[in-house]
Every structure is written in structure tokens, then in C-alpha cells.
Design a protein that fits this description.
The complex is a heterodimer of chains A (332) and B (476). By secondary structure, chain A is an all-alpha fold. Helix content of chain A is 75%, strand content 0%. The radius of gyration of chain A is 19 Å and the shape is globular. By secondary structure, chain B is α+β, with helices and mostly antiparallel strands. The chains are: A mainly alpha (332), B alpha+beta (476). Chains A and B meet through α1, α5 and α6 of A and α2, α9, β10 and β12 of B.
């Protein structure tokens, strides 16, 4: 498979997943914000979400203004936001366009029509009159698209690349949603922990496993370590591990490249660390660590399958998650 | 439906005369269309167009905004029909023409007999913008330079088919032809079946066969790729469509690497050698080491690999000299010279700016002529005499005096018209025809072609970038 095609499929997977996760977060936060009439509290509700969904902490004046005016609109449709939901869908479609021959006609139609919808005035009108329907539509699109990917195309190398993108993105987003709990000092309210669970669509699954109050400890444990919940970080890492091994044809439990080694070791860490240890190390620190590792895995996939050995030297390695993420986005 | 229809003195594809009714080969179609109301027809049309948009059957127009706007190629539901005896003549004429053009290219890049015999002035050939010095004395497989050709045909006021242009570089449009056919089969299944229209669906397979024929490696299945300028090219849809239909990779310049005289593509499993490149990138952008240095679309070193015979390019570099608008004037002479035959298809009388007598004729008659720049395509850089303003004519006169080699002029040929669905009902609109010719082991012409329609009333410009649309072409 062409390296560029693998890269595009990977990003297609990531952007579709990202659009869905953003939609979930905005919808949950928007509803919670409805419950409060105090401006300061409303701003505090949105702050961590804006932080979790932005690529950079340096916002322009235009962006600041847009966020102040309507944070939900900023994340969903604002043109000044380069990573709005609409932008993610448009980027997904751009990537899909270059690899159309790898997708089924139905997948293309779904993606193309949601993109047309977001670009037409219809999405903006729906946002004003019936936002819930808009967010549902976006989430449904992602689910249908991923379902079609599951059931209408060959599960070949390219499919594994888009799955890699999807699960790396999902693990990253789950970790970012969890990180909103560490945004303010002090113990997060039960209100916030509930919101985190709902943003990950994990409320029902959590209940069936814990049947107790939504304590911080339980929620973190669930979203980090659950072996069965499809949005937990551990679950995503397992999928990343198996997709990588499928691509290179390497047996389970071994590795043939750096991306596989990193994934394996991260997975081992998750398998053998308990919640107590994690909370002792500090939630924010562990989340940061996970995000760095995910980022390195992505970078190594890129170096291994897309770049030629002679080109790797040219890629500047930078510390700091945000800068590196920015660079990856620029490598379209 | 057709009761208000006026042929207005033009040759009409469907109606032999205002009173005389439709030609025999159109009678079935007239009956079906006439039985529908305006609204029904428009509804069908809307339905087809929205399905094109949803499927992304689009092209990109530049100029509106920086990144270009995606549009569908407007499509008209009333098919253009060509009866079999007319098609036979077209086929024979195009076959004769592509053979002559390839003999010409072989000749000028080797001995130059036609130049020595003074049939065509050496100056005209060597000064052409697309003359490619690197091709001199290079033996190409089968002596074929133009493997894929899309000549534009028009019909004059008597209904004679004339060649307007030979597109021997990277003719586009074949994908629209195939998509149009699918749309017509959905819109008029019964009518289509009852007429016994010749199928066009084998084009991608034939194209692939034509490409594989060129492979320098004769063992195993040749690795063929389609080289596109990229996502933002106006014809990107076509590139990805054809690659998918042929089952070959679509690559961009950055996917290929040329080292030690071979071309490889970059895959997740390492480098894979490429044998044949169906390139949709212009000569000048192919290789920054040989041509334009600023090209980001090409592959450094690809020409070296080509000259060594390790990779095939379709079409070959340097074919543009044969479809130059000045060279066009000499094609009938070429046919006589190389084949000792009279041209089967006529061409449009052409005045050449560099000939003194012709130039003064052009400058004196700007109002009645169509002036074209020799090396522009897509309907850009031309002057439509009869509809031009005084200012435009003055500007063109200056340009012609400045660079006479770059301009040719032709009398306005009143292109034939075809009934077309318009906002005020069915009206006549001017059409041309672009058939696709493939030259590999054999010469094969896809039965039909892209009928392009000038949708603006009275307009003679059919290019998609200038408000043109298309129709399906049914060869019986």
C-alpha cells in the first residue's frame, strides 16, 4: 500500500473519531451549562472543555472573542477555530478524497453528505433552533461511518491504519476528557465526574460495573483500566496493539518496530498499575504521560510506514505535546 | 415539449428541418421526451444532478476563490445520437489522424524528413512551446507517442464532421462520459435498452491494456500507476475514478522516487518499482531537474529513467507539438505526406499569425474570426470576434503583433445545435464531440464520447471551465 494512502487512512480515522468526541463533549457540557444562570460558573464549565479541545493554548483575540460569545458554537462551527467539528469533518473528507478507491461508495456518501450539510447554512440553523439534533446527527454519522467501515470494506492493511487512527484518537480524547477534572484545584464535584462519564458515553456501562456512587476513584479507574468498555484507555491501547501487529504480521507479545514496542510497554503499564498507585502518582501527571506516549506511538507509525529512513532525520523532534501535535496536523 | 422548438437556421442534431420532424435515429427519443411534461423532465434532471453532487462527481473551478470551488459538470438529459454509418466515418477519420500524428512525431524527433521536404516549416515545429529537445533520437515503444487522444469534433452548417483540435497531451473527460452513461441508464432504462446503444464500459479495461502494452519489463504483471497533480487539480475526480476503475494506484509526485534510472513508489512495505506511468501532469512539470525547476508536482530524475527506457510514460513527453494550434493547420498535409491518403475528416480553415499574408487578413477581419492562442487550452486566451468589444479586439491586435507565432485565427464555424433542457423549456444549444482514442497494440475508439454543450444561449464555447455542460452520446 502507498505510504501516503496509509497516512491518509490513518488521519481519516482520527478526524472522524475526533468529530464524534467533540460532539459528545459539547452536547454534555451544553446541557450542564443550561442548569446554571451564573455567568462565572458557566464560564468555568466551559473552560476545561475548551482547553481539552484546543490544539494550542495560545488563542488569538478573534478566537477569545468567539469563545466568550458562544463556546459551544466555537467548538462546533466557528470558522476561527481550525479544529472545530466542521473543520474535522472537512479534513476527514479531504483525506478521504485522496483515497476514495479505498472506501466503499456508502462510506463516501455518508462523509460527503455530512460535509455538505456542515458547510451549508443548514448546520448553523440547526445549531440555533435545535442543537441536540445537530449533535446527534454528527454522532450518528460517525457511528454509521465506522459501522460501514466495519462491514463494507476489506479488513486489509489500509483498514488497520484507519483503525489505528481511530483508537489513538479515542484514547487521547478519553484522557483529555478525564483531564478536565484536574483543571481546577481541589476535589472535582460529583457533577463534573458525571459529566465526564456522560461525555464518554460511559454512564450505563459504569453503572452495571460499579452500582455505586460516581466517585472520582471509580470513574478514573473505569475510564483508565476497564478491559471491556470500548472508550477506556486500556481498551483502546489493546486495539492499537493488535492493529499494529496485524499490519506488520508480528506475533502477539513481541514487537518488530518502535511503535509496537511503545504500545506494548504502555499496555503493560496499564495492565499492571492499580488505581491507588495512579492516584498517588497524580492523575494529571499520568494523563500527561499517556498523552505523550500516544503521541510518540503516532510519530513512530509515521516514521516507520510513511517516511523513508533517510527522511527521518529531517523531522524535528520537539518536546511538548501541543507543538508536536500541531506538527502532525500540518503533515497532511 | 418540442412544439415551440426552433432550429433557427442552424444544423440541428435532432431535427432535419423546422417542419420536417426529427431524423430517423432520433424518433424513439423524441417520442419519449415529448411524452413528458416540462416539470417531469426537470425533476429527472434535478435528481440526476443531485446524485452527481452527492457522489462527488465534480470538477474544480479556479478564480472564484483561491482554493477553487467544486462544481458538478452540468448534465443534460437529452442524449446525442450518432447513427452507425456516421460513426464508421468518424472512426476511420480519427484512426487515420492518430496514425499520421504519431508518424509526424516519430519523424520530427528523428530524421525530420517532413521538414527537409519543406511540407512544414522547421521553424514552426522547433519553436513550438511543447517541442521537447530531450525526446530527440529517442526510440519509444512501438513508435507511439500519443497513446490517449481526445480530438474535438464539431459539425458545420451542412452537418459535416470537422476536427477542431487534437488533444494529444492529457485529454480529460473520459470519466464524465462513463458517469453520464450510468446516469442515463438510471434515468431512461427502457429507452436505452430498446435502441441498442453501444456500450462504453470497457474503456478502463482497454486503457489499462494500452498502458500495460508499454511496459519495459515483459515478465509478470506490469506495475502501472496514474500520476495526478493532486487533490486540488480540477480533474482530480477523474484521476481517482479512472485509477479505481483500472485497479491501479493513483500517485502524486511525492509518492514516487527516481534513483539510479529507475522509478519506485513508496509503500508501507518499502519501495516498489514502477513500469508504466499514466501521467496527468503536463510535460513542464514532470521533472524539476529537466523542465521547470519550481515544479512540486513532478519527480526529480523521472526523465532520466524514461530516457534510459526503464519506465514508460503515457502520453510521451513532447506530444504537445502535434496538437499545437499552428501545427493543426498542417495535419491534412501530414496525412497526404505520410499515408498518401486524403483526410477523411475535414478541418477548419486556419490562418497563421506568423505568415505575413495571413496576419494582415487576421488583423483586418478580427470581427468575424475566432482568434486562439497557440498553446492555451480550456477555452482560455481566445477572442470570439463577433461577440467581442472594440477594446478586446484592440488588445488582441496588440498581442498578435507582439507574438505572431502564438496566434491562429479561424472563421466562426456555426457549430451544430442540439435540443437541450433550458430554464424556458427545450431549446437548441451548440454542441461538440470529444471521442477518446486509445493507441496501444491496436487502435481502439470508445463508441461515443463526451458531447459538450454550450449552455449559454448563442454561446459557442463548450469548455467546462467556461459554463459548458455535457450530454451522453449514444452510438447506435
Amino acid at each position: 500500500m502507498l505510504s501516503r494512502v496509509a497516512d491518509s487512512l490513518y488521519w481519516l480515522g482520527r478526524y472522524v473519531e475526533r468529530a464524534e468526541n467533540l460532539a459528545r463533549m459539547v452536547e454534555v457540557t451544553r446541557r450542564d451549562a443550561l442548569e446554571t444562570f451564573i455567568n462565572q460558573i458557566r464560564e468555568d464549565i466551559w473552560k476545561p472543555v475548551i482547553y481539552a479541545t484546543s490544539l494550542s493554548n495560545d488563542l488569538t483575540q478573534e478566537q477569545e472573542d468567539s469563545i466568550k460569545e458562544d463556546p459551544a458554537y466555537y467548538i462546533t462551527l466557528a470558522e476561527v477555530n481550525p479544529m472545530s467539528i466542521a473543520a474535522c469533518i472537512s479534513l476527514a473528507r479531504e483525506n478521504a478524497r485522496t483515497v476514495r478507491d479505498q472506501l466503499s461508495e456508502e462510506m463516501w456518501l455518508e462523509l460527503n453528505s455530512i460535509n455538505l450539510y456542515m458547510k451549508s447554512g443548514k448546520a448553523a440553523r440547526a445549531y440555533q433552533s435545535d442543537p441536540e439534533t445537530l449533535f446527534r446527527k454528527i454522532i450518528r454519522f460517525s457511528i454509521i461511518f465506522q459501522g460501514l467501515s466495519q462491514s463494507t470494506i476489506e479488513h486489509d492493511e489500509g483498514w488497520h491504519f484507519s483503525r489505528l487512527g481511530k483508537f489513538i484518537e479515542r484514547a487521547d480524547k478519553t484522557s483529555r476528557i478525564l483531564d478536565t477534572l484536574t483543571f481546577f484545584r481541589g476535589k472535582p464535584s460529583s457533577f463534573s465526574t458525571m459529566a465526564v462519564l456522560r461525555s464518554c458515553s460511559g454512564f450505563t456501562a459504569f453503572r452495571s460495573q460499579y452500582r455505586v456512587e460516581t466517585s472520582l476513584r471509580n470513574v478514573v479507574s473505569f475510564l483508565f483500566f476497564s478491559p471491556d468498555f470500548p472508550r477506556s484507555i486500556r481498551f483502546c491501547l489493546r486495539r492499537i496493539d493488535s492493529a499494529l501487529l496485524e499490519i506488520s504480521g508480528t506475533p502477539q507479545g513481541t514487537y518488530s518496530n518502535e511503535a509496537e514496542r511503545l504500545t506494548g510497554s504502555t499496555l503493560a503499564m496499564l495492565n499492571f498499575t492499580g488505581i491507588d498507585q495512579l492516584l498517588e502518582d497524580g492523575l494529571h501527571e499520568r494523563i500527561d504521560d499517556i498523552q505523550k506516549r500516544l503521541n510518540e506511538i503516532g510519530q513512530n507509525i509515521f516514521e516507520n510506514y510513511v517516511l523513508l529512513p533517510s527522511e527521518i532525520r529531517k523531522v524535528v523532534r520537539t518536546e511538548g505535546l501541543q507543538t508536536s501535535l500541531m506538527q502532525q496536523h500540518q503533515q497532511q | 415539449m418540442f412544439s415551440q422548438y426552433q432550429t433557427e437556421g442552424f444544423f440541428d442534431e435532432m431535427f432535419s428541418s423546422p417542419e420536417g420532424g426529427s431524423f430517423e435515429h432520433y424518433q424513439e427519443i423524441e417520442k419519449v421526451i415529448a411524452s413528458m411534461s416540462d416539470d417531469q423532465l426537470r425533476e429527472k434532471q434535478r435528481h440526476t444532478e443531485s446524485s452527481f453532487l452527492e457522489q462527488g462527481v465534480t470538477f474544480t473551478v479556479y478564480g472564484d476563490t483561491d482554493s477553487g470551488t467544486e462544481r458538478i459538470f452540468p448534465f443534460d438529459l437529452i442524449p446525442r445520437v450518432i447513427p452507425s454509418h456516421e460513426w464508421t466515418q468518424i472512426e476511420d477519420g480519427l484512426t487515420q489522424r492518430i496514425i499520421a500524428l504519431n508518424l509526424f512525431l516519430t519523424d520530427i524527433y528523428h530524421e525530420g524528413k517532413i521538414l527537409k521536404d519543406k511540407i512544414i516549416p522547421e521553424d514552426v515545429v522547433k519553436s513550438a512551446a511543447h517541442y521537447c529537445k530531450q525526446m530527440e533520437n529517442l526510440k519509444v515503444p512501438g513508435d507511439i507517442y500519443i497513446h490517449i487522444c481526445g480530438s474535438d469534433l464539431i459539425r458545420d452548417d451542412k452537418g459535416n464532421y470537422l476536427v477542431l483540435e487534437d488533444n494529444g497531451r492529457c485529454p480529460s473527460g473520459a470519466s464524465y462520459l462513463l458517469e453520464n452513461r450510468e446516469a442515463m441508464k438510471r434515468a431512461f432504462p427502457k429507452l436505452y435498452q430498446s435502441l441498442g446503444v453501444r456500450p462504453v464500459g470497457s474503456y478502463p479495461a482497454t486503457l489499462r491494456k494500452t498502458l500495460e502494452f508499454l511496459s519495459p519489463r515483459q515478465t509478470g504483471t506490469p506495475v502501472c500507476v496514474l500520476l495526478t497533480p493532486g487533490l486540488y487539480n480540477s480533474a482530480y475526480f477523474e484521476h481517482s475514478f479512472l485509477a479505481k476503475q483500472m485497479g491501479i494506484e493513483i500517485v502524486e509526485g511525492r509518492d514516487l522516487i527516481a534513483t539510479d534510472g529507475y522509478v519506485y513508489m513508496r509503500t508501507t512495505r518499502g519501495l516498489v518499482q514502477v513500469d508504466v506511468i499514466y501521467r496527468r501532469v503536463d510535460d513542464h512539470f514532470l521533472d524539476p531537474l529537466e523542465f521547470r525547476k519550481d515544479s512540486l508536482l513532478g519527480v526529480p530524475g523521472i526523465m532520466q529513467a524514461y530516457l534510459k527506457g526503464n519506465v514508460a510514460l503515457a502520453n510521451a513527453p513532447g506530444t504537445g507539438v502535434a496538437d499545437d494550434k499552428v501545427t493543426y493547420a498542417y495535419v491534412p498535409d501530414m496525412i497526404r505526406y505520410y499515408l498518401d491518403q486524403e483526410p477523411i475528416l475535414g478541418s477548419v480553415p486556419t490562418f497563421l499569425g506568423w505568415r505575413e499574408a495571413d496576419r494582415s487578413h487576421i488583423l483586418e477581419n478580427l470581427e468575424s474570426l475566432v482568434v486562439k492562442s497557440a498553446n492555451e487550452s480550456g477555452g482560455y486566451g481566445m477572442l470570439m470576434g463577433p461577440t467581442s468589444t472594440k477594446k478586446e479586439r484592440a488588445e488582441f491586435a496588440e498581442k498578435i503583433k507582439e507574438d505572431p507565432r502564438d496566434f491562429v485565427a479561424q472563421p466562426v464555424v456555426s457549430l451544430s445545435r442540439h435540443p437541450t433542457i433550458c430554464p424556458e423549456g427545450v431549446e437548441g444549444r451548440h454542441v461538440d464531440l470529444r471521442p477518446y482514442i486509445l493507441y496501444g497494440e491496436d487502435i481502439e475508439i470508445i463508441p461515443g464520447g463526451l458531447t459538450r454543450v454550450a449552455l449559454t444561449k448563442g454561446s459557442l464555447v463548450v469548455n467546462s471551465s467556461q459554463g459548458g455542460g455535457s450530454k451522453d452520446t449514444w452510438v447506435l
